[in-house]
């Protein structure tokens, strides 16, 4: 088999958030695509993306998860892909001092597309399950450290994500009680943009800030 074409990696309007779209190779059996190649992603990021932890979440239709990110340090970058069902996937800039703070990017993810979204440290992640039994795969650049997760309200009206909900979303108690981005920033819970940039530079030279 010849080498499959590289996935297309596009930086979104939030610096540090990328959409990865694989190229499908169809034949009479079905299709094949390359979802992840370290070399391709590293070229786009300007640094390696090591995989240190792999997570899955399974959600019923109407479930709203997030907005979640991790304190910096230690940080935990994520590459998220829908491997079953359909989801409305959202990246949100939660880096205090970032020129795009509070901006979001929406990506429709379906199990057959193989589309992934990578979020650098300080970029929050949320998604809405559009079908039953949605399974999301997370490739993480670092192992999770308990107590470092940051929760921000996915229904924050100032962020204004257009979820287009048909009814009351299914949410965890923790997500439902999460502060708005403004409240989280005022409480000193969100990572600073300068700290995140330092983290990215450290990763590019083989370490962590």
Layout of helices and strands, plus pairs?
Elements: E1 8-11, E2 17-21, E3 25-27, E4 30-32, H1 38-45, E5 53-59, E6 64-70, E7 78-84, E8 86-93, E9 104-110, E10 116-119, E11 123-129, E12 134-140, E13 149-151, H2 173-176, H3 181-186, H4 193-204
Antiparallel strand pairs: 1-2, 2-10, 3-4, 5-12, 6-11, 6-13, 7-10, 7-12, 8-9, 8-11
Structural class: alpha+beta
How much β-strand is present in the residues? 25-35%
Uncertain runs are: none
Widest sheet: strand order?
1-2-10-7-12-5
Explain this structure to me?
Belongs to the dTDP-4-dehydrorhamnose 3,5-epimerase family. Keywords: Isomerase. This is dTDP-4-dehydrorhamnose 3,5-epimerase family protein. It comes from Streptomyces yunnanensis. This protein is an alpha+beta fold. 14% of the residues lie in helices and 34% in strands. The protein is built from four helices and 13 strands. It has helices at 38-45, 173-176, 181-186, 193-204, and strands at residues 8-11, 17-21, 25-27, 30-32, 53-59, 64-70, 78-84, 86-93, 104-110, 116-119, 123-129, 134-140, 149-151. The chain has a six-stranded antiparallel sheet, with helices on one face. Strands 9-8-11-6-13 form a five-stranded antiparallel sheet, with no helix packed on it. A hairpin with a 2-residue loop joins β3 and β4 (30-32). The termini are far apart. 38% of the residues are buried. The mean pLDDT is 95.
């Amino acid at each position: 088999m010849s080498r499959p074409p590289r996935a297309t990696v596009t930086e979104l309007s939030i610096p540090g958030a990328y959409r990865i779209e694989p190229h499908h190779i169809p034949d009479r059996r079905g299709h094949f695509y390359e979802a992840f190649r370290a070399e391709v992603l590293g070229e786009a990021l300007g640094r390696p993306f090591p995989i240190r932890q792999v997570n899955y979440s399974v959600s019923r239709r109407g479930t709203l998860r997030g907005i979640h990110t991790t304190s910096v340090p230690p940080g935990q970058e994520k590459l998220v892909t829908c491997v079953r069902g359909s989801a409305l996937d959202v990246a949100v800039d939660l880096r205090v001092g970032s020129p795009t703070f509070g901006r979001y990017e929406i990506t429709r993810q379906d199990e057959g597309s193989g589309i992934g979204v990578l979020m650098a440290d300080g970029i929050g992640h949320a998604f809405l399950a559009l079908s039953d039994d949605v399974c999301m795969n997370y490739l993480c650049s670092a192992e999770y450290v308990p107590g470092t997760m940051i929760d921000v309200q996915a229904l924050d009206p100032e962020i204004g994500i257009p979820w287009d909900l048909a009814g009351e979303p299914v949410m965890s108690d923790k997500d439902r009680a999460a502060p708005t981005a403004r409240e989280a920033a005022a409480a000193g819970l969100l990572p600073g943009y300068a700290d995140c940039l330092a983290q990215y530079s450290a990763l590019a030279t083989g370490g962590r800030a």
